[in-house]
Amino acid sequence: MSEKIILIVEDEKPISDILKFNLEKEGFKTMQAFDGEQGLNLALNNEFDLILLDVMLPKMDGFNVLKEIRVHKQTPIIMVTAREDEIDKVLGLELGADDYITKPYSVRELLARIKANLRRSSSENSAEKAVENSNILKIGRLIINSERYEVTKDDQLIDLTRREFELLRFLAEQPEKIFSREALLKQVWDFEYVGDVRTVDVTVRRLREKIEDNSSEPTYIVTKRGLGYYFSNSK
Ligand code: CA
């Protein structure tokens, strides 16, 4: 297996250097960027396996860097938010971040997140390469195409983030089965430790806005109060 390379976009040099040291100790290669513009340039002109992206950055903030990267690339991105700020987390996920971590975090926690995100993206890559015929799910007016990572409704392409796609596919493959938010976090996000279940709610809400006729009366992804979510087959 080739060495994974991680881009660290962090303006505080001591923090960046600690990250670099710890990541390299784990066998990763790293590159460092110390402001948003430099981070964006490096991200667009190189192939990274993952990007750690601080929100508060000089020249260009992390959200704008994230938005620009997502126009061109699907590199896994973990946003680093400075404080326990709900807005930052939600905004980051809505703009297409794969995950976020809040400062101060432990190196162990960060490494666990990085590894979970890398595992997921490499299994996706090999899944994409595998040629299978059963990769297209049709449910009502929705078509979920796992070969192309595309979802259409009434033949209109729906623009989903990778996580929204995965959540939809996961639920749709097991219709009518109720999953708790914790179970979804574990299975779709691959968090084996305690994550924030509100991440699931945010992603469900975004997904509903994109696929439902009326997101306040969902017919695809349905809430089972007190239990979780399920994909409804009764169209
Ligand atoms: Ca910063």
Instruction: Please name the CATH architecture of the largest domain.
Output: 3-Layer(aba) Sandwich
In DSSP terms (H or I, runs of 4 or more residues), the helix count works out at 8
CATH C-level name of the largest domain? Alpha Beta
Order of helices and strands: EHEHEHEHEHEEEEHHHEE
How many β-strands, per DSSP? 11
- CATH homologous superfamily annotation of the largest domain: Response regulator
Overall spatial form: elongated
- Fraction in helix: 40-55%
Distance N to C terminus? 45 Å
For the sheet with most strands, the description reads: 5 strands, parallel
Q: The CATH topology of the largest domain, please?
A: Rossmann fold
In terms of DSSP E residues, the strand content is: 15-25%
The averaged pLDDT comes out at 86
Question: Could you explain the architecture of this structure?
Answer:
The structure is a single chain. The chain has helices at residues 13-25, 36-45, 62-72, 86-94, 107-129, 162-172, 181-187, 198-211, and strands at residues 5-9, 29-33, 50-54, 77-81, 99-102, 136-139, 142-145, 150-153, 156-158, 221-224, 228-231. It is built from eight helices and eleven strands. Residues 128-133 have low confidence and may be disordered. It has 235 residues and is an alpha/beta fold. It folds into two domains: 5-128, Rossmann fold; 131-231, Arc Repressor Mutant, subunit A. Helix content is 42%, strand content 20%. Strand 1 (5-9), helix 1 and strand 2 form a beta-alpha-beta unit. The structure holds calcium ion. Calcium ion binds at residues 11-12, 54, 56-57.
